[in-house]
Write a structure and sequence with these properties.
2 domains
Length: about 240
């Protein structure tokens, strides 16, 4: 199987090529560039360096959300265009699920934390079993950091956390959590297309994919622009 994986759900842009059970290439950038600037050059570089014939791809995988509204739209538009031209399916993998795969091998529960603004986080709670299968304790959702801490304490199991939300909420979690907890180190604490590809391979084998026309990102929340527009409409209605 040949699968190209793309993740633009957060600050990191990441692309990987999986062939059978090997990651032949992975390219990630976490710097002051927009995904619209970096994504296609990254894909082109991987295609060039691996001498990949795009027509040989079986599928293309995408971090399907939640995450940055702009990032998800850029990634979605890119893979939809490629999938339509190449006539291959899209494997949409929940962003938070894919992040959890970074920490395969731990006995702790895995808690990705993405900063969703407004004191909320995109998160979930996971366990990876001895066969490398991802087990869900809390499905990905948008909740407050207090609600997340309450759920972790309820489960009563050691956790390891990762994601860009750790930087913002570490002090809160240290104060709120009553269970043993730690934080993933650099190299394992952000979105990685290689982890996305591994989970997408499983999804593909289970028939969990769509055509380009059917694919849409999962936002979980309305965008800032949508919320502001609704607030303006409510204000006008009240006059």
């Amino acid at each position: 199987m040949k699968l190209l994986a793309v993740d633009t759900s957060g600050l990191v842009a990441s692309v990987a090529l999986l062939v059978d059970d090997r990651i032949l290439a992975e390219y990630s950038v976490d710097y002051k560039k927009t995904h619209s600037e970096t994504l296609m050059p990254m894909i082109n570089e991987i295609v060039h360096i691996t001498e990949l014939d795009l027509k040989e791809l079986d599928a293309i995988a995408i971090a399907g959300g939640p995450g940055s509204f702009t990032g998800l739209r850029i990634g979605s538009a890119t893979v939809k265009g490629m999938a339509e031209v190449l006539e291959i399916p899209i494997v949409s993998v929940p962003t938070v699920d894919a992040m959890a795969m970074n920490l395969w091998g731990t006995d702790d529960y895995i808690v990705p934390i993405m900063d969703a603004r407004r004191n909320q986080t995109y998160t979930g709670i996971y366990e990876i079993d001895r066969n490398g299968r991802l087990l869900t304790k809390l499905e990905q959702c948008a909740i407050s950091i207090e609600e997340l801490a309450e759920e972790i304490n309820r489960l009563g199991h050691p956790v390891i956390m990762l994601g860009d939300g750790v930087d913002r909420f570490m002090e809160n979690m240290d104060e709120l959590l009553k269970v043993e907890h730690r934080y993933a180190p650099a190299g394992m604490n952000r979105q990685r297309a290689a982890s996305l590809a591994r989970l997408a391979q499983q999804y593909y084998s289970e028939g969990k994919y769509t055509g380009a026309e059917e694919h849409t990102p999962v936002y979980l929340r309305k965008s800032q622009a949508e919320r502001e527009r609704e607030n303006k409409e409510c204000s006008k209605s009240a006059v």
